[in-house]
Structure formats: structure tokens, C-alpha cells
Amino acid sequence: MASTADIRNGLCMSFNNDIYTVVEFQHVKPGKGAAFVRTKLKSLTTGRVVDNTFPSGHKIDDVRVERRKYQFLYKDENGYHFMDNESYDQVELKEAFLDRPEFLKEGAEIEILFHAEKEIPLTSEMAPHVVLEVTYAEPGVRGDTATNVTKSATLETGAEIKVPIFINQGDKIKIDTRTGDYLERMK
Predict the structure, then answer these.
(1) Which residues have CB under 8 Å from 88's CB, separation 6+?
(2) To 10 degrees, the CA torsion angle through 160, 163, 168, 173?
(3) CB-based burial label for 79 (10 Å; 0-12, 13-18, 19+)
(4) Can you give the pLDDT of all 187 residues of the chain as single tens digits?
(5) Using alpha carbons only, how large is the chain's radius of gyration in Å?
(6) CA torsion through residues 119, 100, 82, 91, sign
(7) SS3 state of residue 98
(8) Rounded to whole angstroms, how far apart are CA atoms 84 and 20?
(9) How far apart are CA 184 and CA 174, in angstroms?
(10) What is the rounded CA–CA span in Å between residue 177 and residue 127?
């Protein structure tokens, strides 16, 4: 059991029959009345963000969670399969559980957040950037560079993204996994 004095960013708590993490919080002491804590909570099961205000001194149920690094092995009809590099335990996750599965390449590492007591996965986080090879891109036409012209490119994972016109087949590019946008060409 914790109280509102223990609230900090990243704290996981049981609230309204779900597990939430604190995204943002603010202790408020108005000139008149009791102090309170204004929070923005993100559900680890649904991803929904809710605002909630706790009175100062209110008891909250904190949840112990563990972050573990897993390596992506393969995908089949059952889902995505990952392996813990230390214990070699394997975990299978559904596609809805992953933020951007189209950027997962064999051998890529992700972090999976587990409920410590129940040993169930709560959420997963990919690296913020990945480097992938372009397997198909239409050739760029010279003279089309007056404005920010983009074209479609297919990556080695099968994902399609918009890239600048100078990107060719065989180039390695850096992609932001949070937005799915092209960042830069790698050497």
C-alpha cells in the first residue's frame, strides 16, 4: 500500500480493476481547502489515458512490475514469439499487444513489462529507432526535388513507408518506430 506522497512518473498501480501507470502528476495545495494530486494515468491493458484526482493522503495499491529484454524469434499464425536472452524462456504475444509489429526484424530486442506476482505480460516497448534495408523502391526521377517529394518503399520486414525520392533499393534507412516515419539514410 502506498499513498499519494509516493506517486511519481512510471509508478504502476491498481485502479478501477485495471493496472495503470502514472504518465504525469502534479501536487496541488490550493490556498483554501485540502491538498490533492492531479494525475494522468495510462492503462497498461488497453492503452487508454484517463485523468484522475486523488485527495492528499489517499491510499493507492501499487503494483510491482518487472522490465525484461526479449529477442524476437519469429511470427506464425499464433502470434509473435520472443525469447529471454538470460533464461531462454519463450513468450508468445498477440499482434494487438505490440505497437508497431511491422518493424520487427528477427533478432530485434524489445522490452516486455511483466506483472511481478502473476507473471503475465502487461505491455511491450520497441527501441525508438530501427535500421532496416529497403527491398523495393521505384527509381526517383531527376528534377522532382523542388518540394518535399516522397515515394513508397518496401522494407525487409514487408512494411511500406514513405521515403524521400533519393532512397534506392538496397539502402539502409533509420525509422522512428513510434511514428513510422523515415529519419535518415544510414551508411
Answers:
(1) none
(2) -80
(3) middle
(4) 888 888 999 889 999 888 999 999 999 999 889 999 999 999 887 778 999 999 998 999 988 888 899 999 999 998 999 999 888 889 998 887 888 888 988 999 999 888 888 888 888 888 899 999 999 988 876 665 566 788 889 999 999 999 988 888 999 999 998 888 999 998 8
(5) 22
(6) positive
(7) coil
(8) 25
(9) 5
(10) 7
Q: How many helices (H) and strands (E) does the chain have?
A: 0, 16
Q: How far is CA 100 from CA 61, 120, 127, 130, 169, in A?
A: 31, 20, 11, 11, 23
Whether residue 70 contacts residue 91, with contact meaning beta carbons closer than 8 Å, is answered with yes
Which residues does 113 contact at the CB level (< 8 Å), separation at least 6? 44, 65, 66, 67, 121, 122, 123, 124, 125
3-state secondary structure at position 102: helix
Give the position of cell 534495408.
Answer: 133
Distance CA 28, CA 16 (A): 23
Can you list the pairs that 132-136 forms with residues at least 24 positions away whose Cβ atoms lie under 8 Å? 132/103, 132/105, 132/156, 132/157, 132/159, 132/172, 132/173, 132/175, 133/170, 133/171, 133/172, 133/173, 134/163, 134/167, 134/168, 134/169, 134/170, 134/171, 134/172, 134/173, 135/169, 136/169
All three cell numbers of 139, joined, read 527509381
The two beta strands, 120-126 and 79-84, are unpaired
